Amino acid sequence: MLKVLLVVALIAVVVWFLVRLTLRRLDGGGPSRPRVIGPDDDPDFLRGLDRPRKPEDD
Description:
The protein is mostly helical and 58 residues long. The chain has 2 helices and no strands.
């Protein structure tokens, strides 16, 4: 009985892995989250550091 459960569990794991791999390929390679970059990696931010700031009127 234990051998049967191990075989069923092994088959289930293999099928789960294959389904997940297939869905990932159909989806385009996985989740595509936008890459978050810090301000020290942003060229526009770094370029703006050299500009003089305007005084704000409160």
